[in-house]
Design brief:
This protein is of the alpha/beta class. The protein is built from 14 helices and 5 strands. The N and C termini lie far apart (about 70 Å).
């Protein structure tokens, strides 16, 4: 019996070491032992909300996920909590909105991002049910391969002294050379971005989830929650090379936006459209990191000023 106990104790040592390393370096602050998460993954954002629910909340995809919340607070005069996360589909965003409104926590304001891309029926990622299970089961979180890879990456970056990646670029001549060696009119990352969108957008159709925006608007009105829908800006080449050829511009401007404005008038919410009707006068080549994401140094701060001034 003693031999078995000793063997089990020896086996427990590597498990304990792995668990300690995982908890120390997992970037989502799942266990609430750090000042803040270093990740913008959905589990990090929702875990933060569970620990300290804010009353003014941002929901959407990566275009909102990297907003400087201190800047947002300074511009608007109120504290915001960012629940936007990379790759969030319309369904995931609306599921999260329902989760917040079902939580029983006080909510004053919801800012929800939508775009032609997330309104597309062919962009339908659905991770929320799995997310809820992970939030309720720490063992499932610890055994998840993706989160273990994330923890290992943070460990290696810490050892190497690798700084956090920021989506910005001081583009040089080498950034304007195409695969064929020819000089490009835009920096390479921006120039090739539309090609990444075409496979999902060439058969664009409005998602069935679109109708849930009206349901959300009615629910917010009844609960006294101020709702704002935001359409983030896109680069011109996304519009000209993706939206126009596949008729997305027509569908958005003739069908989608009029419906959003009609709901806004009926339910008393705002639509801030920087994608079609009120695109900021940005220089795409210097202020966009790629076709969707503003440069975090040269573009995003300027848009944050615009957005949160209008929200105020």
């Amino acid at each position: 019996m003693k031999h078995i106990v000793k063997s089990l104790a020896l086996l427990a040592i590597p498990v304990a070491v792995w668990l300690a390393v995982f908890i120390a370096f997992e970037p989502n602050n799942y266990f609430g032992l750090k000042a803040a998460a270093s990740s913008t993954q959905p589990v990090a954002r929702v875990r933060e909300y569970q620990a300290d629910p804010g009353r003014c909340l941002l929901l959407g995809d990566s275009r909102l996920a990297h907003i400087d919340m201190q800047q947002a607070a300074e511009v608007s005069g109120k504290a915001w909590q960012n629940l936007a996360f990379g790759g969030a589909s319309l369904k995931e965003t609306l599921d999260l909105a329902d989760y917040i409104l079902d939580s029983g926590n006080e909510v004053d304001e919801l800012v929800v991002a939508v775009s032609f891309y997330t309104l597309n029926a062919h962009y339908n990622t659905d991770r929320f049910e799995q997310l809820e299970e992970t939030l309720q089961n720490p063992l499932a979180y610890c055994l998840n391969l993706e989160y273990n890879v994330n923890a290992l990456t943070v460990l290696l970056d810490t050892v190497r002294g690798t700084p956090d990646a920021v989506e910005t670029g001081e583009w040089g001549p080498e950034d304007y050379i195409g695969d064929d060696g020819e000089t490009l009119p835009l920096h390479y990352k921006l120039y090739v971005y539309p090609q990444n969108l075409i496979p999902r957008c060439e058969n664009w159709a409005l998602s069935e989830e679109f109708a849930r925006l009206e349901t959300l608007a009615a629910r917010c009105r009844d609960a006294g929650v101020r709702l704002t829908l935001v359409l983030p800006p896109m680069a011109d080449n996304v519009r000209t090379e993706v939206c126009v050829p596949f008729g997305i511009d027509t569908a958005m401007q003739q069908d989608v936006l009029p419906q959003l404005h009609a709901w806004a008038a009926e339910y008393g919410f705002a639509v801030l459209d920087y994608e079609w009707e009120n695109r900021p006068d940005f220089d795409d080549d210097t202020q966009f990191f790629d076709g969707f994401h503003l440069d975090e140094v040269h573009g995003l701060p300027q848009w944050v000023d615009m957005l949160f001034t209008e929200l105020t």
